[in-house]
Write a structure and sequence with these properties.
single chain; alpha/beta; Rossmann fold; six-stranded mixed sheet; elongated
Length: about 450
């Protein structure tokens, strides 16, 4: 594998994203080709990674893809890069609830044999930062913490005190960052606003992070740390490919609303023989010759009025679905297929209404397919992730998509699978293949 580092922290809010994005952008400006990765099911941070690196942002998630695919997916996403920067999730050792750190940043670092740079928020501590660093070094000796970046340092005097506390640990301080209001990126109910919704602000924030890191971090020391990663080989993941003459059009919703899907999703669809056409449901019509539709996740509840205003597209989708159009919809896609969302008319494909609530639904899920469709066989077990504050109210009896530990979820028809659950299709490559096969059959 290529030179690599993992950017981690003792807890959320320490500044991992600022440092990771700043490192990616600063190293790119220094002439390095950088591959960016995010641990876990996050869709938003990889968007900022893409702005910083000029390459697609990607996720590494042992829970959703399986441990065995983390190395191959990393190798695939690192192809052509000089080094890789992996941004962690939550605290270094925080993984799926009820496990011993499964799918944590530390877990991924071990799978990649990658050195770790620890970002510590020093805003409310001095010498005690040293105890934090020492504790994280000692907690798991299989994790190699090669440096510390001190974030939110208030003054030269404060910096000296913190450095004095860290010195006895033997872990080098690779950088010191002061507080910087330019790094504030607008947020909303589920975290940062995706980069593709506020491109100018995202680019400004990335530029500010890059400059902050350039001034405060020893980039040569970071490069040396990345190059200290031991040799560790993995055969790059490759989407299973089919050779076909006729490539059916699979329309993939994109734009500001439907920005939540993994980079590998379109790679899998293309390899399965699809001509993937991305369209923006806010402004576009259904692509010509659409033979199947994939509606990913995003924030439709914040664009409900604008989505509803594209009346022609709503009619096109409803008519195409009534005519048998194969559709896979995840989270935002489920809401778009409902009759309405917060009082705004949607496509009306499904007998349900959707509304925003104050309750956050968040976490990994083990799900079992409740019935057989074009994409899943009844009884199929998968791992997915939920992340939303909406709910749907059913207006008629429906066939659910999944059996979950807490009940049923989603709606299916023979040619539609719509649910809140996000899957990493690298673990279920037959699903995109089946969607493309259904598209091919419809296109005949």
């Amino acid at each position: 594998m290529i030179p690599r580092i993992v950017v981690a922290a003792p807890a959320s809010g320490a500044g991992k994203t600022t440092v990771a994005v700043g490192l990616m952008a600063a190293l790119r400006r220094a002439g390095q080709v950088v591959a960016g990765f995010k641990v876990g099911p996050d869709y938003i941070d990889p968007g900022f990674h893409a702005v910083a690196t000029g390459r697609p942002g990607r996720n590494l998630d042992p829970m959703l893809s399986g441990e065995e695919l983390v190395g191959p997916l990393f190798a695939h996403g690192s192809d052509g890069a000089d080094l890789a920067v992996v941004e962690g999730v939550m605290g270094l050792y925080d993984g799926a609830l009820g496990t011993e750190g499964f799918s944590s940043t530390a877990h991924v670092a071990k799978l990649l044999k990658a050195p770790v740079v620890l970002v510590v928020d020093a805003s409310a501590a001095g010498r005690s930062v040293g105890a934090v660093v020492q504790g994280f070094v000692a907690f798991d000796t299989e994790i190699r913490i090669v440096g510390v970046i001190l974030n939110k340092v208030g003054s030269d005097r404060h910096e000296a005190e913190v450095r004095a506390g860290v010195a006895p640990t033997g872990v080098p301080v690779l950088g010191v960052l002061r507080r910087d209001t330019r790094l504030t990126v607008p947020s909303r109910h589920l975290g940062l606003i995706p980069a593709n919704e506020q491109r100018t602000q995202a680019e400004q924030a990335v530029d500010a992070a890059a400059e902050l890191v350039r001034q405060g971090v020893d980039l040569q020391a970071v490069l040396a740390a990345a190059h200290s990663a031991p040799t560790h080989t993995a055969i790059p993941w490759t989407p299973p490919a089919v050779v076909v003459e006729a490539r059916p059009v699979v329309a993939v919703a994109g734009g500001p609303v439907f920005s939540f899907h993994y980079t590998e999703t379109t790679e899998l669809l293309k390899a399965a023989g699809a001509d993937v056409v991305t369209f923006d449901p806010l402004t576009d019509q259904l692509p010509e010759a659409t033979a199947a539709l994939y509606l990913g996740g995003g924030f439709p509840e914040l664009h409900a009025e604008a989505l509803s205003a594209n009346v022609e597209l709503r009619k096109q989708v409803a008519a195409a679905v009534a005519d048998g159009l194969p559709v896979v919809a995840e989270c935002a896609g489920l809401l778009y297929l409902c009759r309405e969302l917060d009082g705004h008319p949607m496509t009306g494909v499904l007998p349900a209404t959707a509304r925003m609530t104050s309750r956050l639904t968040l976490g990994y899920r083990t799900a079992v397919a409740a019935s057989s469709t074009a994409f899943f066989d009844e009884g199929r077990r998968v791992r997915g992730h939920e992340f939303h504050r909406t709910t749907i109210d059913l207006e008629a009896d429906v066939q659910p998509a999944w059996h979950l530990p807490g009940g049923v979820e989603g709606i299916t028809l023979p040619h539609i699978h719509a649910s809140y659950l996000h899957l990493h299709w690298t673990a279920t490559p037959d699903v995109p293949a089946r969607l493309v096969a259904a598209a091919r059959e419809r296109a005949r």
